[in-house]
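Weekly sync notes, structure subgroup
Attendees: PM, AL, DS (notes)

Item 1: joint prediction request from the bench team. They want all two components modeled as one assembly rather than separately. Inputs as received:
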Amino acid sequence: EAEPSVGGGPGGSCRTRRLYVSFREVGWHRWVIAPRGFLANYCQGQCSLPATLPGPRGPPTLNHAVLRALMHSAAPGPAGLPCCVPARLSPISVLFFDNSDNVVLRHYEDMVVDECGCR
Amino acid sequence: ARAPGAPGPAAALLQALGLRDAPQGAPKPRPVPPMMWRLFRRRDPQEARVRQRQTPPGAPLRPCYVEELGVAGNIVRHVLDRGAHTWTPEPSATGQCPQWTAIFDLSAVEPAELMSRVRLELRFVAEERAPGTAGGWELSVARATQGVGVGPVLLRQAVVSLRMPVRVELLGTAYAHNTSVPRSLQLVLALSPLATGTCACLAEASLLLVTLDPRLCHPLARPRR
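Output from the run, pasted for the record:
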């Protein structure tokens, strides 16, 4: 399940959008004990000015991204705008049965997008 | 030459999660050990968010570290014994209690994974009310050799009561730290009453194995200047 983008395209400024990953969707619900799924989210949106300059609580601004946005606003060219990508991620843990009927707990880093940024 | 067909989405996700393949068919239903639930709830960010609403935030959890067990690790496995064959020693040693062979299948563990905790958990059943068992027991753990032979005793441990599971740390005795995991672990267990008394029965043997897969650990990011 994904949050539809505004106007059907990558509208609005760069920000985190909701994406729920359900283990049932890929048929793993029989052997994944918990969780049933998780909010992975994704990044989408324009990285033009001023979106490239997030507020004080946003991800750190990359000077290069600001430069590109400035160049693009002055004279759009092949370089294009910076990209809207994950800037801060967090882990998840998955509890499941493996092929030998062991109960396994695995921890995975960088599975959930908490914050997006222009890069 | 064409590269082999790209894996489907599910196979690609499995690969990204470091899993060789999805278990085939429905697993044999078995209860999830309370310890595994506790470890999952402790680490699961969604559970953590619920917890933060209920209790003041504690120190952030360190990546690649199992706080509850106090060791480095990012994979915890609860492995059930596949052996548990009861056999009695030679007739000359009649009067001795039975011994058990416990076999743990660790073939699912990847060679890159390093052991950081190997805990044997044994549940015994004995009539503690029988006379003479007040002195407790002595558990001995040895390696099983080919056939039903017994290798050298790896450790002995006093057992005061059988009401609680008996836990035995094997890392440092049966296995050295940071060594790769063997494909199978075969142990011979014996529980002898220290005073004359009845023998106990082994009801269940399981292994709690914590490993660290360094490939899934990101070097800690340097603080930004």
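Discussion: The radius of gyration of chain A is 18 Å.
Action: AL to compare against the crosslinking data before next sync.
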